Amino acid sequence: MSLSSRVKEKFKTVFAESEPLIVRSPGRVNLIGEHTDYNNGFVLPAAINKAIYMAVSPRSDKELHLVSLDLDRTYLGSLDKLEPSPMHWPDYLLGVVQQLQGARHVPGGFNCVFGGDIPLGAGMSSSAALECATAFALNEMFGLKLDPLTMVKLSQKAENKFVGVQCGIMDQFASMFGRRNHVIRLDCQNLDYTYFPFNMDGIRIVLLDSNVKHSLASSEYNTRRQQCEAGVRLVQAKHPRVKSLRDIDLEMLDKYVAPAGELVYRRCRYVVEENSRLLAATEDLQKGDLAAFGQKMFATHEGLSRQYEVSCEELDFLVQQVQDDPAVIGARMMGGGFGGCTINLVKEEAIDALVERLSPVYRQAMSKELKAYVARIEDGTSIVNS
Fold first, then answer.
1. Is residue 171 annotated as a catalytic residue, yes or no?
2. 295: buried, middle or exposed (CB in 10 Å: 19+, 13-18, 0-12)?
3. Coil vs helix vs strand at 221
4. How far apart are CA 186 and CA 28, in angstroms?
5. What one-character DSSP code corresponds to residue 71?
6. Are the beta carbons of 44 and 34 closer than 8 angstroms?
7. Three-class DSSP category at 289
8. pLDDT per residue over 118-149, tens digit each?
């Protein structure tokens, strides 16, 4: 039975209603453009074929009845008293409801069952998918007439303010705006976006999960932001129009940042080069040159590891292991760093052999199990016509 069918069946069982609205909202990957978002740069995400499925129906009262299929847990609440739950998972839905209320888009009470196949903790943004599913479903069900970008911003705010995670907008944007066999070049400065074709014929995205979660990640993330801001201030002293690393070129870095300190210079140089690399990578996609695109992914990893220093031994090992494999077109660490996954573009017929080769080698070198997830690029949040 498909996941959407299981969600619908559970809904019928719990609420004794036969025809709920069913929405699918996908997770995402980011092909290139890492740590550029908070520097007003570019990112290149895509929605994938792993998603949250949500069944909803309106109630005649103000109650909220939420059921997590995967956790087999139920939350009962009210529109009149929205507060974070000790269970935590309801917060992603409640935060969206609160944001809708705050923007004077008043939803009614509702029944909801949701489940998904986005692996938790692998950096595919299951939280953003759940928020976007909620916003999309309530917009549809209550006729709120919100456009997709408004729903994206509401979903991001829900995570920032109600859940308490200071995420950028990329995850929700990719989940809502994804298009099959296309990546989205999103300009984080002004939210302009362009679709670029990404031919998935015979190729799959393989995420190799290092099974590492380093506690450094959040503190080092804040340090990187401060280092980037320090570099911007050095250039601003001579060029007041400069607002972020997006406005800075390598010549400015060499002239104003390098003399002040090698560390801040290296951090800033990575971001400036990564933005240029991403723009060149979208030109590769327009030409259909995936080999050139893949080489830029390897270059990004080198920058993240050596210049920005947000990789770790395990991630570096996984990228090194595939660097000379003819079946792997490109690879890099994905996400904030210090653990998580590498993202790999792999020829479809070679995936099983690759995972079979890497698993024992990784286990021996790092004393950890390797997990692999295979994905392709799919459409964004939409109604499921069952």
1. yes
2. middle
3. helix
4. 13
5. T
6. no
7. coil
8. 988 778 889 999 999 999 999 999 999 999 99
